[in-house]
Amino acid sequence: MEQKEDKLKEVISHAKEYGFVFPSSEIYDGLAATYDYGQLGSELKNNIKSYWWKSMVQMHDNIVGIDASIFMHPTTWKASGHVDAFNDPLIDNKDSKKRYRADVLIEEHIEKIRQKIEKEVEKGSKKFGDSFDEAQFRVTNPNVLRNAQKIEEIENRMRQTLEDNDLEGVYNLIVDLEIVCPISGSKNWTEVRQFNLMFSTELGSVAGDASTIYLRPETAQGIFVNFLNVQKSGRMKIPFGIAQIGKAFRNEIVARQFIFRMREFEQMEMQFFVRPGEEMKWYEYWKETRSNWHKKLGLGDHNYRFHDHIKLAHYANAAADIEFNFPMGFKELEGIHSRTDFDLKQHEQFSGKKLQYFDPELNQNYVPYVVETSVGLDRMFLAVLSASYKNEKLEDGSERAVLSIPAALAPIKVAVMPLTKKDGLPEKAMEVLNLLKFDYNCQYDEKDSPGKRYRRQDAIGTPFCVMIDHQTMEDNTVTIRDRDTMEQIRVAISELNGIIDQKVNIRTLLQ
Ligand code: ATP
Protein backbone atom coordinates (compact mmCIF):
# COMPACT_ATOMS: atom_id res chain seq x y z
CA MET A 1 0.00 0.00 0.00
CA GLU A 2 2.74 2.37 1.04
CA GLN A 3 4.61 1.63 -2.15
CA LYS A 4 1.50 2.43 -4.18
CA GLU A 5 0.99 5.74 -2.40
CA ASP A 6 4.64 6.58 -3.01
CA LYS A 7 4.19 5.86 -6.70
CA LEU A 8 1.19 8.20 -6.88
CA LYS A 9 3.12 10.91 -5.03
CA GLU A 10 6.03 10.54 -7.42
CA VAL A 11 3.73 10.82 -10.43
CA ILE A 12 2.06 13.93 -8.97
CA SER A 13 5.35 15.67 -8.30
CA HIS A 14 6.77 14.71 -11.69
CA ALA A 15 3.61 16.02 -13.35
CA LYS A 16 4.03 19.34 -11.57
CA GLU A 17 7.77 19.69 -12.04
CA TYR A 18 7.57 19.24 -15.81
CA GLY A 19 4.44 21.25 -16.52
CA PHE A 20 1.83 18.52 -16.96
CA VAL A 21 -0.59 19.22 -14.08
CA PHE A 22 -0.73 21.99 -11.46
CA PRO A 23 -3.07 22.37 -8.50
CA SER A 24 -5.71 24.94 -9.49
CA SER A 25 -5.24 28.51 -8.19
CA GLU A 26 -2.19 27.36 -6.30
CA ILE A 27 -1.10 30.84 -5.19
CA TYR A 28 -4.25 30.84 -3.02
CA ASP A 29 -3.35 27.37 -1.70
CA GLY A 30 -5.41 25.62 -4.36
CA LEU A 31 -9.03 24.52 -4.53
CA ALA A 32 -9.83 20.96 -3.52
CA ALA A 33 -10.17 18.47 -6.37
CA THR A 34 -9.59 20.96 -9.17
CA TYR A 35 -6.47 20.94 -11.32
CA ASP A 36 -4.99 22.87 -14.22
CA TYR A 37 -3.22 21.25 -17.14
CA GLY A 38 0.08 22.90 -17.95
CA GLN A 39 1.96 23.39 -21.19
CA LEU A 40 2.77 19.70 -21.68
CA GLY A 41 -0.35 18.37 -19.99
CA SER A 42 -2.66 20.18 -22.37
CA GLU A 43 -0.76 18.72 -25.33
CA LEU A 44 -1.06 15.20 -23.94
CA LYS A 45 -4.73 15.77 -23.20
CA ASN A 46 -5.37 17.01 -26.74
CA ASN A 47 -3.62 13.96 -28.16
CA ILE A 48 -5.73 11.58 -26.06
CA LYS A 49 -8.86 13.40 -27.22
CA SER A 50 -7.72 13.15 -30.79
CA TYR A 51 -7.08 9.39 -30.48
CA TRP A 52 -10.57 8.90 -29.07
CA TRP A 53 -12.34 11.21 -31.54
CA LYS A 54 -10.61 9.77 -34.57
CA SER A 55 -11.20 6.16 -33.58
CA MET A 56 -14.85 6.87 -32.82
CA VAL A 57 -15.90 9.41 -35.44
CA GLN A 58 -13.38 9.20 -38.26
CA MET A 59 -13.06 5.41 -38.25
CA HIS A 60 -16.82 4.70 -38.04
CA ASP A 61 -18.99 5.90 -40.89
CA ASN A 62 -22.08 5.61 -38.67
CA ILE A 63 -20.81 7.76 -35.79
CA VAL A 64 -20.84 11.56 -35.80
CA GLY A 65 -19.71 14.06 -33.18
CA ILE A 66 -21.38 17.07 -31.56
CA ASP A 67 -20.50 19.76 -29.04
CA ALA A 68 -23.47 20.62 -26.81
CA SER A 69 -23.61 23.37 -24.21
CA ILE A 70 -22.88 22.81 -20.54
CA PHE A 71 -26.06 24.54 -19.39
CA MET A 72 -29.27 22.80 -20.35
CA HIS A 73 -32.94 23.43 -19.69
CA PRO A 74 -33.48 22.45 -16.04
CA THR A 75 -36.22 19.98 -16.94
CA THR A 76 -33.53 17.90 -18.66
CA TRP A 77 -32.27 16.85 -15.23
CA LYS A 78 -35.72 16.06 -13.90
CA ALA A 79 -36.31 13.82 -16.92
CA SER A 80 -32.92 12.14 -16.66
CA GLY A 81 -33.49 11.35 -12.99
CA HIS A 82 -30.53 13.36 -11.75
CA VAL A 83 -32.57 15.77 -9.61
CA ASP A 84 -34.13 12.90 -7.68
CA ALA A 85 -31.58 10.13 -7.84
CA PHE A 86 -28.07 11.40 -8.53
CA ASN A 87 -27.01 10.86 -4.95
CA ASP A 88 -24.13 9.31 -3.10
CA PRO A 89 -24.67 7.63 0.26
CA LEU A 90 -22.37 9.42 2.71
CA ILE A 91 -21.04 8.52 6.11
CA ASP A 92 -18.79 10.52 8.45
CA ASN A 93 -16.29 9.25 10.94
CA LYS A 94 -16.84 11.18 14.16
CA ASP A 95 -13.22 10.93 15.29
CA SER A 96 -11.32 11.86 12.14
CA LYS A 97 -14.19 14.09 10.88
CA LYS A 98 -13.57 12.54 7.47
CA ARG A 99 -16.44 11.92 5.11
CA TYR A 100 -16.70 8.78 2.99
CA ARG A 101 -18.94 7.25 0.39
CA ALA A 102 -20.54 4.34 2.20
CA ASP A 103 -20.55 2.13 -0.90
CA VAL A 104 -16.86 2.82 -1.50
CA LEU A 105 -15.98 1.81 2.07
CA ILE A 106 -17.79 -1.49 1.55
CA GLU A 107 -16.21 -2.06 -1.86
CA GLU A 108 -12.76 -1.48 -0.39
CA HIS A 109 -13.56 -4.04 2.28
CA ILE A 110 -14.54 -6.52 -0.45
CA GLU A 111 -11.30 -5.80 -2.30
CA LYS A 112 -9.33 -6.75 0.81
CA ILE A 113 -11.07 -10.13 0.94
CA ARG A 114 -10.39 -10.55 -2.77
CA GLN A 115 -6.71 -9.95 -2.13
CA LYS A 116 -6.77 -12.70 0.52
CA ILE A 117 -8.05 -15.08 -2.15
CA GLU A 118 -5.26 -14.09 -4.52
CA LYS A 119 -2.67 -14.64 -1.77
CA GLU A 120 -4.07 -18.12 -1.12
CA VAL A 121 -3.88 -18.91 -4.85
CA GLU A 122 -0.31 -17.66 -4.95
CA LYS A 123 0.58 -19.87 -1.98
CA GLY A 124 -0.98 -22.86 -3.72
CA SER A 125 0.90 -22.13 -6.89
CA LYS A 126 4.21 -22.02 -5.01
CA LYS A 127 3.41 -25.21 -3.13
CA PHE A 128 2.34 -27.33 -6.09
CA GLY A 129 4.64 -25.86 -8.74
CA ASP A 130 4.08 -27.06 -12.30
CA SER A 131 1.28 -29.44 -11.36
CA PHE A 132 -0.81 -26.54 -10.00
CA ASP A 133 -4.31 -26.39 -11.48
CA GLU A 134 -5.50 -22.87 -10.65
CA ALA A 135 -9.09 -23.28 -11.84
CA GLN A 136 -9.50 -26.45 -9.79
CA PHE A 137 -7.87 -24.81 -6.75
CA ARG A 138 -10.28 -21.88 -6.89
CA VAL A 139 -13.34 -24.15 -6.69
CA THR A 140 -12.01 -26.57 -4.07
CA ASN A 141 -9.71 -24.81 -1.59
CA PRO A 142 -11.72 -24.25 1.63
CA ASN A 143 -10.16 -20.84 2.41
CA VAL A 144 -10.82 -19.56 -1.09
CA LEU A 145 -14.38 -20.86 -1.02
CA ARG A 146 -15.10 -19.34 2.38
CA ASN A 147 -13.85 -15.92 1.28
CA ALA A 148 -15.66 -16.10 -2.07
CA GLN A 149 -18.87 -16.81 -0.21
CA LYS A 150 -18.22 -13.89 2.13
CA ILE A 151 -17.83 -11.58 -0.86
CA GLU A 152 -21.04 -12.82 -2.38
CA GLU A 153 -22.97 -12.28 0.83
CA ILE A 154 -21.65 -8.74 1.25
CA GLU A 155 -22.33 -7.88 -2.39
CA ASN A 156 -25.88 -9.16 -2.14
CA ARG A 157 -26.56 -7.18 0.99
CA MET A 158 -25.03 -4.05 -0.49
CA ARG A 159 -27.03 -4.34 -3.71
CA GLN A 160 -30.27 -4.92 -1.86
CA THR A 161 -29.85 -2.04 0.58
CA LEU A 162 -28.73 0.41 -2.11
CA GLU A 163 -31.53 -0.59 -4.45
CA ASP A 164 -34.10 -0.18 -1.69
CA ASN A 165 -32.55 3.12 -0.64
CA ASP A 166 -32.32 1.49 2.79
CA LEU A 167 -29.71 3.79 4.35
CA GLU A 168 -30.00 2.19 7.76
CA GLY A 169 -29.27 -1.15 6.12
CA VAL A 170 -26.13 0.30 4.54
CA TYR A 171 -25.07 1.63 7.96
CA ASN A 172 -25.71 -1.75 9.56
CA LEU A 173 -23.61 -3.47 6.92
CA ILE A 174 -20.67 -1.16 7.68
CA VAL A 175 -21.04 -1.84 11.40
CA ASP A 176 -21.42 -5.62 10.92
CA LEU A 177 -18.32 -5.76 8.74
CA GLU A 178 -16.46 -3.82 11.46
CA ILE A 179 -15.14 -1.38 8.88
CA VAL A 180 -12.84 1.20 10.44
CA CYS A 181 -11.94 4.70 9.28
CA PRO A 182 -8.61 4.52 7.40
CA ILE A 183 -7.49 7.72 9.16
CA SER A 184 -8.62 7.38 12.77
CA GLY A 185 -8.92 3.60 12.83
CA SER A 186 -12.20 3.95 14.74
CA LYS A 187 -15.70 2.56 14.14
CA ASN A 188 -17.36 5.70 15.42
CA TRP A 189 -19.66 6.39 12.43
CA THR A 190 -22.55 8.77 11.84
CA GLU A 191 -25.71 7.56 10.11
CA VAL A 192 -25.69 7.27 6.30
CA ARG A 193 -27.22 10.20 4.35
CA GLN A 194 -27.93 10.91 0.69
CA PHE A 195 -26.21 13.83 -0.99
CA ASN A 196 -27.00 15.19 -4.48
CA LEU A 197 -23.91 15.63 -6.63
CA MET A 198 -25.12 18.32 -9.03
CA PHE A 199 -23.84 21.89 -8.80
CA SER A 200 -26.60 24.42 -9.20
CA THR A 201 -26.54 28.09 -10.03
CA GLU A 202 -28.97 30.89 -10.87
CA LEU A 203 -29.87 31.91 -14.36
CA GLY A 204 -30.42 35.64 -14.92
CA SER A 205 -31.58 37.93 -12.17
CA VAL A 206 -34.86 36.38 -11.07
CA ALA A 207 -34.66 34.59 -7.76
CA GLY A 208 -36.52 31.41 -6.99
CA ASP A 209 -36.75 27.83 -8.13
CA ALA A 210 -37.70 28.51 -11.72
CA SER A 211 -34.30 30.03 -12.48
CA THR A 212 -32.18 27.32 -10.88
CA ILE A 213 -30.02 25.61 -13.46
CA TYR A 214 -27.34 22.96 -13.16
CA LEU A 215 -23.84 22.42 -14.43
CA ARG A 216 -24.21 19.19 -16.38
CA PRO A 217 -23.05 16.15 -14.38
CA GLU A 218 -22.61 14.11 -17.58
CA THR A 219 -22.35 14.97 -21.26
CA ALA A 220 -24.81 12.26 -22.31
CA GLN A 221 -27.98 14.34 -21.95
CA GLY A 222 -26.75 16.86 -24.52
CA ILE A 223 -26.71 13.95 -26.96
CA PHE A 224 -30.15 12.60 -26.03
CA VAL A 225 -31.90 15.94 -26.47
CA ASN A 226 -30.24 16.31 -29.88
CA PHE A 227 -31.03 12.78 -31.01
CA LEU A 228 -33.61 13.81 -33.60
CA ASN A 229 -31.71 16.93 -34.74
CA VAL A 230 -28.69 14.82 -35.61
CA GLN A 231 -30.65 11.86 -36.98
CA LYS A 232 -32.69 14.06 -39.33
CA SER A 233 -30.04 16.56 -40.41
CA GLY A 234 -27.42 13.81 -40.86
CA ARG A 235 -29.90 11.31 -42.37
CA MET A 236 -28.54 8.74 -39.93
CA LYS A 237 -29.76 5.15 -40.09
CA ILE A 238 -29.94 2.92 -37.04
CA PRO A 239 -27.61 1.63 -35.70
CA PHE A 240 -25.70 4.89 -35.38
CA GLY A 241 -23.76 6.77 -32.73
CA ILE A 242 -23.29 10.34 -31.50
CA ALA A 243 -20.00 11.18 -29.84
CA GLN A 244 -19.01 14.11 -27.66
CA ILE A 245 -16.09 15.34 -25.59
CA GLY A 246 -16.84 17.90 -22.92
CA LYS A 247 -16.75 19.08 -19.35
CA ALA A 248 -18.91 17.61 -16.61
CA PHE A 249 -19.27 18.71 -12.99
CA ARG A 250 -19.96 16.74 -9.83
CA ASN A 251 -19.79 17.86 -6.25
CA GLU A 252 -17.78 14.79 -5.28
CA ILE A 253 -17.52 14.06 -1.58
CA VAL A 254 -14.45 11.95 -1.54
CA ALA A 255 -12.37 14.09 -3.83
CA ARG A 256 -8.90 12.73 -3.36
CA GLN A 257 -6.46 10.85 -5.53
CA PHE A 258 -5.29 13.64 -7.78
CA ILE A 259 -7.03 13.91 -11.17
CA PHE A 260 -8.77 10.56 -10.67
CA ARG A 261 -11.72 12.20 -8.94
CA MET A 262 -12.28 15.85 -9.66
CA ARG A 263 -15.22 18.21 -9.27
CA GLU A 264 -14.73 19.54 -12.79
CA PHE A 265 -13.62 16.96 -15.32
CA GLU A 266 -13.94 15.95 -18.94
CA GLN A 267 -15.81 13.02 -20.42
CA MET A 268 -15.58 11.36 -23.81
CA GLU A 269 -18.94 9.77 -24.38
CA MET A 270 -20.65 8.02 -27.25
CA GLN A 271 -24.32 7.05 -27.35
CA PHE A 272 -25.07 4.28 -29.81
CA PHE A 273 -28.73 4.05 -30.90
CA VAL A 274 -29.94 0.55 -31.76
CA ARG A 275 -33.07 -1.46 -32.46
CA PRO A 276 -34.88 -2.59 -29.30
CA GLY A 277 -33.85 -6.16 -28.59
CA GLU A 278 -30.45 -5.79 -30.22
CA GLU A 279 -28.87 -3.90 -27.35
CA MET A 280 -27.07 -6.88 -25.78
CA LYS A 281 -25.28 -7.66 -29.02
CA TRP A 282 -24.07 -4.07 -29.23
CA TYR A 283 -23.23 -3.97 -25.54
CA GLU A 284 -20.86 -6.91 -26.05
CA TYR A 285 -19.51 -5.34 -29.23
CA TRP A 286 -18.67 -2.04 -27.49
CA LYS A 287 -17.18 -3.77 -24.47
CA GLU A 288 -14.73 -5.52 -26.73
CA THR A 289 -14.09 -2.57 -29.04
CA ARG A 290 -13.37 -0.21 -26.16
CA SER A 291 -11.16 -2.73 -24.41
CA ASN A 292 -9.11 -3.09 -27.61
CA TRP A 293 -8.86 0.70 -27.92
CA HIS A 294 -7.24 0.86 -24.49
CA LYS A 295 -4.93 -2.09 -25.03
CA LYS A 296 -3.66 -0.68 -28.32
CA LEU A 297 -1.82 1.96 -26.27
CA GLY A 298 0.59 -0.71 -25.09
CA LEU A 299 0.39 0.18 -21.39
CA GLY A 300 0.19 -3.56 -20.61
CA ASP A 301 -2.86 -5.82 -21.09
CA HIS A 302 -2.55 -7.06 -17.49
CA ASN A 303 -3.36 -3.52 -16.32
CA TYR A 304 -7.00 -3.80 -17.47
CA ARG A 305 -9.93 -5.78 -16.17
CA PHE A 306 -13.70 -5.75 -16.51
CA HIS A 307 -15.93 -5.20 -13.52
CA ASP A 308 -19.63 -5.95 -13.95
CA HIS A 309 -21.87 -3.66 -11.91
CA ILE A 310 -23.81 -5.20 -9.09
CA LYS A 311 -25.84 -2.07 -8.47
CA LEU A 312 -27.28 -0.91 -11.77
CA ALA A 313 -28.01 2.77 -12.22
CA HIS A 314 -31.69 3.68 -12.56
CA TYR A 315 -31.43 3.73 -16.36
CA ALA A 316 -29.41 0.59 -17.14
CA ASN A 317 -30.13 -3.08 -17.86
CA ALA A 318 -26.45 -4.03 -18.05
CA ALA A 319 -23.27 -2.17 -17.13
CA ALA A 320 -19.58 -2.90 -16.86
CA ASP A 321 -16.51 -0.88 -16.05
CA ILE A 322 -13.16 -1.16 -17.69
CA GLU A 323 -10.85 -0.85 -14.71
CA PHE A 324 -7.24 0.19 -14.89
CA ASN A 325 -4.40 -0.61 -12.53
CA PHE A 326 -3.76 2.94 -11.28
CA PRO A 327 -1.08 3.60 -8.65
CA MET A 328 -3.92 3.29 -6.09
CA GLY A 329 -4.97 -0.10 -7.46
CA PHE A 330 -7.63 -1.20 -9.96
CA LYS A 331 -10.25 1.54 -10.41
CA GLU A 332 -12.89 2.52 -12.95
CA LEU A 333 -11.54 4.11 -16.11
CA GLU A 334 -14.50 3.70 -18.45
CA GLY A 335 -18.12 2.66 -18.18
CA ILE A 336 -20.06 0.73 -20.82
CA HIS A 337 -23.77 0.97 -20.16
CA SER A 338 -26.83 -0.48 -21.80
CA ARG A 339 -29.23 2.39 -21.04
CA THR A 340 -32.33 0.88 -22.66
CA ASP A 341 -34.83 3.45 -24.00
CA PHE A 342 -35.00 5.09 -20.57
CA ASP A 343 -33.55 8.50 -21.45
CA LEU A 344 -35.36 9.08 -24.75
CA LYS A 345 -38.67 7.93 -23.25
CA GLN A 346 -38.23 10.23 -20.27
CA HIS A 347 -37.48 13.16 -22.56
CA GLU A 348 -40.54 12.31 -24.66
CA GLN A 349 -42.66 12.38 -21.54
CA PHE A 350 -41.23 15.57 -20.04
CA SER A 351 -41.04 17.53 -23.31
CA GLY A 352 -44.17 16.21 -24.94
CA LYS A 353 -42.18 15.75 -28.18
CA LYS A 354 -41.81 12.45 -30.00
CA LEU A 355 -38.26 11.12 -30.04
CA GLN A 356 -38.73 8.17 -32.35
CA TYR A 357 -37.11 6.65 -35.34
CA PHE A 358 -38.83 5.28 -38.41
CA ASP A 359 -37.09 2.04 -39.34
CA PRO A 360 -37.61 1.55 -43.09
CA GLU A 361 -36.59 -2.11 -42.94
CA LEU A 362 -39.15 -2.94 -40.28
CA ASN A 363 -41.60 -0.32 -41.57
CA GLN A 364 -42.10 0.70 -37.95
CA ASN A 365 -41.61 3.60 -35.53
CA TYR A 366 -39.84 3.03 -32.22
CA VAL A 367 -37.82 4.69 -29.47
CA PRO A 368 -34.29 3.35 -29.97
CA TYR A 369 -32.30 1.59 -27.26
CA VAL A 370 -28.95 3.04 -26.30
CA VAL A 371 -25.57 1.54 -25.53
CA GLU A 372 -23.16 4.11 -24.19
CA THR A 373 -19.41 4.19 -23.75
CA SER A 374 -18.16 6.80 -21.29
CA VAL A 375 -14.53 7.36 -20.47
CA GLY A 376 -13.02 10.07 -18.29
CA LEU A 377 -10.40 12.05 -20.16
CA ASP A 378 -8.60 12.93 -16.96
CA ARG A 379 -8.55 9.32 -15.84
CA MET A 380 -7.12 8.38 -19.25
CA PHE A 381 -4.47 11.02 -18.68
CA LEU A 382 -3.61 9.55 -15.29
CA ALA A 383 -3.53 6.02 -16.72
CA VAL A 384 -1.12 7.04 -19.48
CA LEU A 385 1.05 9.12 -17.18
CA SER A 386 1.30 6.64 -14.31
CA ALA A 387 1.89 3.60 -16.50
CA SER A 388 4.51 5.47 -18.53
CA TYR A 389 6.47 6.88 -15.63
CA LYS A 390 9.58 4.88 -14.80
CA ASN A 391 12.81 5.33 -12.92
CA GLU A 392 15.27 3.20 -14.85
CA LYS A 393 18.65 1.96 -13.73
CA LEU A 394 21.02 2.13 -16.67
CA GLU A 395 23.92 -0.16 -17.51
CA ASP A 396 26.50 2.41 -16.45
CA GLY A 397 24.94 2.58 -13.00
CA SER A 398 23.21 5.93 -13.53
CA GLU A 399 19.45 6.45 -13.38
CA ARG A 400 16.96 8.15 -15.61
CA ALA A 401 13.35 9.19 -15.15
CA VAL A 402 11.52 8.41 -18.37
CA LEU A 403 7.95 8.75 -19.56
CA SER A 404 7.48 6.01 -22.13
CA ILE A 405 4.25 7.64 -23.33
CA PRO A 406 2.86 6.00 -26.50
CA ALA A 407 4.74 7.99 -29.17
CA ALA A 408 1.56 9.14 -30.91
CA LEU A 409 0.36 10.75 -27.67
CA ALA A 410 3.65 12.35 -26.61
CA PRO A 411 3.35 16.14 -26.06
CA ILE A 412 6.59 16.88 -27.91
CA LYS A 413 7.53 14.55 -30.75
CA VAL A 414 11.02 15.79 -31.56
CA ALA A 415 13.68 17.80 -29.76
CA VAL A 416 16.20 19.45 -32.06
CA MET A 417 19.61 20.25 -30.55
CA PRO A 418 22.88 21.73 -31.74
CA LEU A 419 25.88 19.90 -30.25
CA THR A 420 27.46 23.24 -29.33
CA LYS A 421 26.35 26.86 -29.36
CA LYS A 422 28.88 27.92 -32.00
CA ASP A 423 30.20 27.19 -35.52
CA GLY A 424 26.79 27.82 -37.05
CA LEU A 425 25.27 24.71 -35.42
CA PRO A 426 22.37 26.58 -33.74
CA GLU A 427 21.41 28.16 -37.07
CA LYS A 428 21.51 24.77 -38.76
CA ALA A 429 19.43 23.28 -35.95
CA MET A 430 16.82 26.02 -36.41
CA GLU A 431 16.73 25.17 -40.10
CA VAL A 432 15.96 21.52 -39.28
CA LEU A 433 13.35 22.56 -36.72
CA ASN A 434 11.69 24.82 -39.26
CA LEU A 435 11.40 21.82 -41.57
CA LEU A 436 9.84 19.57 -38.95
CA LYS A 437 7.52 21.96 -37.15
CA PHE A 438 4.86 21.85 -39.86
CA ASP A 439 4.20 18.21 -38.99
CA TYR A 440 5.26 17.81 -35.37
CA ASN A 441 5.31 19.61 -32.08
CA CYS A 442 9.06 20.30 -31.70
CA GLN A 443 11.29 21.75 -29.03
CA TYR A 444 14.62 23.49 -29.49
CA ASP A 445 17.22 22.94 -26.76
CA GLU A 446 20.84 24.14 -26.72
CA LYS A 447 21.53 24.46 -23.00
CA ASP A 448 23.71 22.03 -20.97
CA SER A 449 25.53 18.88 -22.05
CA PRO A 450 23.89 16.54 -24.56
CA GLY A 451 23.44 13.93 -21.82
CA LYS A 452 21.49 16.36 -19.64
CA ARG A 453 19.37 17.46 -22.57
CA TYR A 454 18.53 13.84 -23.43
CA ARG A 455 17.46 13.24 -19.81
CA ARG A 456 15.20 16.29 -19.90
CA GLN A 457 13.49 14.99 -23.02
CA ASP A 458 13.20 11.47 -21.55
CA ALA A 459 11.49 12.96 -18.52
CA ILE A 460 8.77 14.53 -20.67
CA GLY A 461 8.42 11.53 -22.97
CA THR A 462 9.82 12.95 -26.23
CA PRO A 463 10.22 9.97 -28.60
CA PHE A 464 13.05 11.48 -30.69
CA CYS A 465 16.05 13.78 -30.22
CA VAL A 466 17.82 15.07 -33.31
CA MET A 467 21.40 16.27 -32.78
CA ILE A 468 23.11 18.65 -35.20
CA ASP A 469 26.91 18.34 -35.10
CA HIS A 470 29.91 19.37 -37.16
CA GLN A 471 29.40 16.55 -39.63
CA THR A 472 25.94 17.93 -40.33
CA MET A 473 27.58 21.05 -41.74
CA GLU A 474 29.52 18.90 -44.20
CA ASP A 475 27.07 16.25 -45.38
CA ASN A 476 23.58 17.20 -44.10
CA THR A 477 23.31 14.17 -41.83
CA VAL A 478 22.24 14.21 -38.18
CA THR A 479 21.98 11.70 -35.36
CA ILE A 480 18.52 10.70 -34.21
CA ARG A 481 18.12 9.18 -30.76
CA ASP A 482 15.28 6.92 -29.74
CA ARG A 483 13.80 7.55 -26.27
CA ASP A 484 13.13 3.90 -25.48
CA THR A 485 16.27 2.16 -26.78
CA MET A 486 18.49 5.24 -26.28
CA GLU A 487 20.21 4.21 -29.51
CA GLN A 488 21.43 6.80 -31.96
CA ILE A 489 21.71 6.40 -35.68
CA ARG A 490 23.04 8.77 -38.30
CA VAL A 491 20.61 9.65 -41.06
CA ALA A 492 20.20 12.26 -43.77
CA ILE A 493 18.04 15.27 -42.84
CA SER A 494 15.81 14.35 -45.75
CA GLU A 495 15.05 11.00 -44.11
CA LEU A 496 13.93 12.47 -40.76
CA ASN A 497 10.30 12.97 -41.64
CA GLY A 498 9.82 9.37 -42.70
CA ILE A 499 11.51 7.92 -39.62
CA ILE A 500 9.61 10.12 -37.17
CA ASP A 501 6.27 9.69 -38.90
CA GLN A 502 6.46 5.91 -38.79
CA LYS A 503 6.47 5.98 -35.01
CA VAL A 504 4.48 9.03 -33.96
CA ASN A 505 1.65 9.12 -36.48
CA ILE A 506 -1.75 8.51 -34.84
CA ARG A 507 -2.27 5.95 -37.60
CA THR A 508 -0.11 3.55 -35.56
CA LEU A 509 -2.88 3.51 -32.93
CA LEU A 510 -5.87 3.50 -35.26
CA GLN A 511 -4.80 0.64 -37.50
P1 ATP B 1 -17.20 6.54 -9.92
O1 ATP B 1 -17.91 5.27 -9.54
O2 ATP B 1 -15.70 6.40 -9.94
O3 ATP B 1 -17.68 7.75 -9.19
P2 ATP B 1 -19.09 6.76 -12.01
O4 ATP B 1 -19.50 5.35 -12.16
O5 ATP B 1 -19.95 7.70 -11.27
O6 ATP B 1 -17.59 6.83 -11.42
P3 ATP B 1 -19.81 7.45 -14.67
O7 ATP B 1 -20.99 8.23 -14.26
O8 ATP B 1 -19.99 6.11 -15.28
O9 ATP B 1 -18.78 7.36 -13.43
O10 ATP B 1 -18.92 8.39 -15.60
C1 ATP B 1 -18.20 7.89 -16.71
C2 ATP B 1 -16.73 8.16 -16.58
O11 ATP B 1 -16.46 9.52 -16.24
C3 ATP B 1 -16.04 7.35 -15.51
O12 ATP B 1 -15.69 6.07 -15.98
C4 ATP B 1 -14.82 8.17 -15.21
O13 ATP B 1 -13.76 7.86 -16.11
C5 ATP B 1 -15.27 9.59 -15.46
N1 ATP B 1 -15.54 10.27 -14.18
C6 ATP B 1 -16.65 10.18 -13.44
N2 ATP B 1 -16.55 10.96 -12.35
C7 ATP B 1 -15.33 11.56 -12.40
C8 ATP B 1 -14.64 12.48 -11.56
N3 ATP B 1 -15.19 12.97 -10.46
N4 ATP B 1 -13.40 12.89 -11.93
C9 ATP B 1 -12.83 12.42 -13.06
N5 ATP B 1 -13.44 11.54 -13.89
C10 ATP B 1 -14.68 11.11 -13.57
What characteristics describe this protein?
Herpes Virus-1, 5-stranded mixed β-sheet, alpha+beta, BirA Bifunctional Protein, domain 2, Rossmann fold, globular, binds adenosine-5'-triphosphate, 7-stranded mixed β-sheet
Please provide a written account of the structure.
A hairpin with a 4-residue loop joins strand 14 (357-359) and strand 15 (364-366). This protein has 511 residues and is α+β, with helices and mostly antiparallel strands. The strands form 7 sheets. Strands 3-9-10-16-13-12-11 form a 7-stranded mixed sheet. It folds into 3 domains: 1-74 and 203-391, Bira Bifunctional Protein, Domain 2 (BirA Bifunctional Protein, domain 2); 87-196, Herpes Virus-1; 394-510, Rossmann fold, CATH 3.40.50. It contains 18 helices and 23 strands. The chain binds adenosine-5'-triphosphate.
Structural class: alpha+beta
N- to C-terminal separation?
38 Å
Morphology call: globular
The CATH first-level class of the largest domain comes to Alpha Beta
Helix share bin? 25-40%
- What number is the mean pLDDT? 94
The helix count comes to 18
Instruction: Pick out the low-confidence regions.
Output: none
Tell me the CATH topology of the largest domain. BirA Bifunctional Protein, domain 2
Quick one: biggest sheet? Answer: 7 strands, mixed
Counted beta strands = 23
Strand-residue fraction?
A: 15-25%
Bound molecules: adenosine-5'-triphosphate
Q: CATH architecture of the largest domain, please? A: 2-Layer Sandwich
Total separate domains: 3
Q: Rg, please?
A: 26 Å
CATH superfamily of the largest domain: Bira Bifunctional Protein, Domain 2
The strands making up the biggest β-sheet line up spatially as 3-9-10-16-13-12-11
